[in-house]
Amino acid sequence: MIKGLGTALITPFRADMSVDYDALDRLLDTQLTGAVDYIVVLGTTGEAATMSADEKREVRQHIVKYVNGRLPLVLGVGGNNTAQVISDLHAMKNELILDFTAILSVCPYYNKPSQEGLFQHFCAVAETSPIPVILYNVPGRTGVNLLPETVIRIYEAQPKKIIGIKEASGNIEQIKHLISLAAHYPSLAVISGDDGIACDVMKAGGKGLISVASNAFAEDFHRIVHKQDEQLQAKYTEMIYLLFAEGNPAGIKTVLAQKGIIQNYLRLPLVPNSAGIQEAIAKELLV
Hints:
Layout: E1 4-8, H1 21-31, E2 38-41, H2 53-67, E3 73-76, H3 82-91, H4 93-99, E4 102-106, H5 115-128, E5 133-137, H6 139-142, H7 148-157, E6 162-167, H8 172-182, E7 189-192, H9 198-203, E8 208-211, H10 218-226, H11 230-235, H12 237-244, H13 250-258, H14 275-285
Parallel strand pairs: 1-2, 1-8, 2-3, 3-4, 4-5, 5-6, 6-7
Helix pairs in contact: 1-2, 3-5, 5-7, 7-8, 12-14, 13-14
């Protein structure tokens, strides 16, 4: 069920930094039109790192209730303390089984573990998780690169639990190498984690995209993913640059605010886009 276009959902906030559930419902309505194949809840784009455990529980329960089975849901569950991730998974066991199709688990950040450390971490996560696991490689954020050979080691050690990897290294040669290795394992999906190279990844044999841009442009990114529409993707080159020019999710929140779906608030240490980027995004939306 985890293939095609997945949206890495943002979390809207109010001026007092509380979760804006009305805006969240408006955003979910844009995702439930048929263009999106699944939603990733409380990942990096959702600013989960700045939310308390109670807030995260309330947000995921709200989304589960609102979506009401209309789309598969993937839950971000990761961290740089393996024991804490395992504890979190144990605490959410029944909820995960009932409400989510898979978890998305990011490489441990800051600690900079070796490939062996990454292997043992993800094996422990997979062993504990009551539902399938999608690995998440994003070295620009974590400071460590999960290499293709290590991905295959993890899969071979936990073939019943590991179903894919969100690959956001931006290194197309590494991604192609991983796809060539994963071709021997039909149940292991390589998913693009970068909006700008989605077509390249899928042409090489990737199985879709977990997208930031689809928060605001679901229909177009459905076509990019399902039709591999390279011309349409090329039209978004400047917008994708602007979305990430000052960090994610600042850019996509600017777009959603300009579309009237949310208010443009982020939690520190993240801040809204500068005036220059906001103006550039406004101009790009008119193109």
